Amino acid sequence: MELHIKNMVSNRCKLIVKSELEKLGLHYASIKLGVAEIADDTPPEKITLLDFSLKKSGLSLIEDKKSMLVEKIKNVIIELVHYSEDQIKVNFSDYLSGKLNYDYTYLANLFSEHQGTTIEHYFLHHKIERVKELLIYGELNITEIAYRLHYSSVAHLSNQFKKITGLTPSHYKNLRVKKRIPLEKV
């Protein structure tokens, strides 16, 4: 049985889900971003207890099919931006459609309806949060960050960064207090 989990956006979230499953004595086959695979014969009471315990950590189970699909869209974007260095070979809309086996127009309309923003804005905001993270680490310069996140140029990255944050990447890097948004809040 697949359990779809809202706001499961990081490895830390996967550890929380794993811990809660183990506390309840539930056996799992796999835990991925947004999904935990458990035994089909799990009693409904244990599922309810799991949902209650996950809510304490800002996570929750999803049962609505459309909400599940919206979470899958988010997880594909998060996986692509934060956990993959591979450059996609097709445009983003084709990539997303291929990953989820739905028409992009349907996905875009559903996402906008549920989230109040477009897939493109969501994707862009995650890219900017990743840029912030890489700037804070200080291991890469802005040119290397632009290359890693597949921007066409440093100027393109800088323009998008300034449009979203109001700061240039170099000004952001020099701030004493660097404000980042948690992934589940983007």
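Second entry:
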Amino acid sequence: MESARSFYMALSPPDAEWKKGSAELLVLSLLEDQPRHGYDISKLIQIRSGGALQFHVTSLYPLLHRLEKQGWIEGRWVEKVEQRRRRYYSLTPEGKKVVRSKQKSWQDFVAVVSRITGIEHA
């Protein structure tokens, strides 16, 4: 009989650390369609989750820095007239591959959990 630990490992989400992995997926997914600045990313997560998820700057900007260091996103400073400059982030070609892989992994994980629990998506 399998131990609970090996069962968990077989069904683990895309990353071993749920919070870290889901945060990366959320941010990368929001950058798929267009470059965004940190505040925009934070607000979109809050709005699209109906307020259930929120990113504070103390966790978002270190995450953006880490994703940039990994080569999955790139940032560039943009100055607009009568606005302060903002750093806009966009996916790199490697980041596009990573986000597709992470999305697929999460879809597969949710499908397995749904089959086990009998919970169906609306």
